[in-house]
Amino acid sequence: MTLDLDTDGPVPLITVRGEVDMSTAHLISELAEHTIARRPARLVLDLSRVTFFSAHGISALLRTRRAAAGADVGLILRDAAPCVTYLLMVTGTRRNFRVATTRVDDPVPVGKRRTGEHSPV
């Protein structure tokens, strides 16, 4: 798994690529918590390039959500890969997150992706 943090724009963006499992999931919440400590208005996690997502990934997202809520930072999951959306749905944790596709201010329900639209946050 690799993580990229982009702080060039007004909204920090963490892009997650690869496999999120028991040996890597904690890195997501650690980087997110570091970013949340800077108190941005929002934090976006781009999960479009995740190729495997375990229950440890769900735990990392829930830890991140708690940290964001505690700091009054909006958390948005953007373009979650099918393996992520599946696990969010079957675990019942989907309702805990704002999930957006293509644009942060235009959330679309999971499974209702619009094809051909790809604009950066």
UniProtKB/TrEMBL annotation:
UniProt cross-references to SUPFAM superfamilies, sorted A to Z: SpoIIaa-like
Stretches assigned to the STAS domain: 1-92
InterPro entries given in the database record: MlaB-like_STAS, STAS_dom, STAS_dom_sf
Name of the protein in its database record: Anti-anti-sigma factor
Organism: Micromonospora luteifusca
PROSITE patterns found in the cross-reference section: STAS (PS50801)
PANTHER family with a match to the protein in the record: ANTI-SIGMA FACTOR ANTAGONIST TM_1081-RELATED (PTHR33495:SF2), ANTI-SIGMA FACTOR ANTAGONIST TM_1081-RELATED-RELATED (PTHR33495)
